[in-house]
Specification:
By secondary structure, the protein is α/β, with parallel strands linked by helices. The protein has 20 helices and 18 strands. The strands form five sheets. It has a six-stranded parallel beta sheet with strand order 3-2-1-14-15-9, with helices on both faces. Strand 4 and strand 5 (133-135) form a beta hairpin.
Length: 511
């Protein structure tokens, strides 16, 4: 039976500055979901990358006094390095300055020309260089003598230039029909409702080329124009699969994409423009777009001007990558804005990781080392409570899979920590130190069940804290081929009589 395939993407990041917590959050979410699909038995293709065209990039390069491509190379490298720092499991890193991407964008453009969905006219309207977005009159306001976009707070300027337009207005009904027949195409539902309301008001045709700058992909047969950054950027999801070669394995195995993970600020581009482009080009639509909320600091969106930016690289250096990953997944309800702070991060590390999961592993492994010649005992009695402990988790696997397939990471991780809490209680209540004096067989069974449960919890934590969970599975000598859901459901005696590896403190408490 062939393996099932799953294609997941992050937004491609705009490298006009250094990576920040918003970039880290999107990437970590996508990585957790990608890793989970792998332990579920899927063949996963996980994409991230950088969006390197547009006026903003061109101006930033000019400010730095560097040639634009060199500027992109240097900044993109920071984002590529971030994938290693965040311990991402991405299969590919796409750059929009790559030739494979140029070929895909040109192909999409030609398809839209052939379908009659692109025409030449003159653009007049408000444009934000920062957002690389056009805004209607009702989407801007005056602030301190300047026009700004209400949604982002970015300055907008009046633009008049020749432009190619995409007939977005003609796709309103088909988009609404798609949303209706695919209610989970946009998640969470609050984002879906927002998009539906916007489309129901009526869509205007979309400017898809610019002549006021040159840093972009030239329009085929009209090099005076460059292709508008969003038609360019969104196509990355296809160019990473070698589109337009639809016969290649990458495309045939992975398109349509299963899940685009994005921030809510770019929802319109992914949930309206992108599917309309694809419909017009007669290309299948992705299965889901999930728009997560913002990471807030002190109840406000992080901003250089406010000075409330939390640097993910600094947090990782001081506390650890697993600790940051766990905290963002546990404390932020995916889809909503999440307020984070160093105080809450420390509490989360100490309470959940050090005192709960870490303490459980340390206590059990140390007891086995001291009292069982460092070998996991065989199950010698059918302990009812021990079986109830492990069965509770095993019988809930389908529900945990459903949580992850609905991107409910918050509930998923809380469930796993509850299992860890129950396991600590089971170990305390069973008192193996007392059983050593009165009933060795029962003691051995308690130790068997508790190590079995630690193995299962660790497998479920692999997507979230892969470094730490793998350390535990290394101590238990679990074969790498069984570090998956099959290793939970099909192997009751996986650990019997195995010698433990070197025991170490998993999580140090922070002051």
């Amino acid at each position: 039976m062939p393996r099932k395939n799953f294609y997941i993407t992050t937004p491609i990041y705009y490298p006009s500055g250094s990576p920040h917590m918003g970039h880290a959050y999107s990437s970590i979410i996508a990585d957790v979901l990608a890793r989970f699909k792998r332990i579920e038995g899927y063949n996963v293709h996980f994409l991230t990358g950088t969006d390197e065209h547009g006026l903003k990039i061109q101006r930033e390069a000019e400010k730095s006094g560097k040639e634009t491509q060199l500027f992109c190379d240097e900044i993109s490298k920071k984002f590529k390095n971030l994938t290693k720092i965040l311990n991402l499991s991405n299969n590919d890193f796409i750059r929009t300055t790559e030739m494979r991407h140029h070929k895909s964008v040109e192909s999409i453009w030609n398809k839209l020309i052939q379908s009659g969905d692109i025409y030449l006219d003159k653009y007049k309207g408000w444009y934000s260089i920062s957002d690389e977005a056009y805004y209607d009159e009702d989407e801007i306001k005056d602030l301190n003598g300047e026009k700004i976009a209400i949604s982002s707070g970015s300055i907008v300027e009046w633009v008049e230039e020749d432009s190619f337009f995409f007939k977005l207005s003609s796709w309103s009904e088909k988009l609404l029909a798609h949303y209706k027949s695919n209610p989970k195409f946009i998640m969470p539902s609050s984002r879906r409702n927002e998009v539906v309301r916007f489309v129901e008001k009526g869509l205007s045709d979309l400017s898809v080329s610019r002549t006021s700058f040159s840093w972009g992909i030239p329009v085929p047969k009209n090099s005076k124009h460059v292709i508008y950054v969003w038609l360019d950027a969104l196509t990355n999801y296809l160019s990473a699969l070698d589109f337009p070669d639809t016969s290649c394995k990458l495309y045939s195995n992975y398109w349509p994409a299963d899940l685009h993970i994005i921030g809510k600020d770019i929802l319109r581009f992914h949930a309206i423009y992108w599917p309309a482009f694809l419909m017009a080009a007669n290309i299948p639509l992705p299965k889901r777009v999930f728009g997560h909320g913002w990471i807030l600091s002190e109840e406000k969106k992080m901003s250089k001007s406010i000075g409330n930016i939390l640097d993910p690289l600094e947090i990782i250096e001081n506390y650890g990558i697993d600790q940051l990953r766990y905290y963002l997944i546990k404390e932020v309800s995916l889809g909503n804005d999440g307020n984070i702070s160093l105080i809450n991060l420390k509490k989360c590390i100490n309470n959940d990781l050090a005192n709960n999961y870490g303490n459980l592993c340390q206590r059990v492994f140390s007891f086995i080392k001291k009292n069982c010649s460092n070998k996991i005992p065989n199950k010698e009695t059918n302990s009812k409570k021990g079986k109830e402990l492990t069965d509770k988790l095993k019988n809930n696997i389908e529900e945990l899979v459903e949580l992850m397939n609905n991107q409910d990471l918050n509930t998923y991780i809380k469930s796993i920590i509850d299992y860890s809490f129950d396991s600590n209680k089971y170990f305390n209540d069973s008192e193996p130190w007392s059983l050593k004096k009165t009933n060795l067989k029962e003691m051995n069974s308690v130790l068997f069940f508790i190590t079995e449960q630690i193995k299962n919890i660790s497998i479920l934590l692999l997507p979230v804290i892969p470094i730490s969970a793998n350390k535990v599975l290394d101590i238990l000598n679990v074969d790498k081929s069984l570090r998956n859901l099959t290793g939970i459901t099909k192997n009751d005696n996986l650990l019997s009589n195995k010698e433990l590896g070197n025991i170490e403190i998993l999580f140090k408490k922070v002051e």
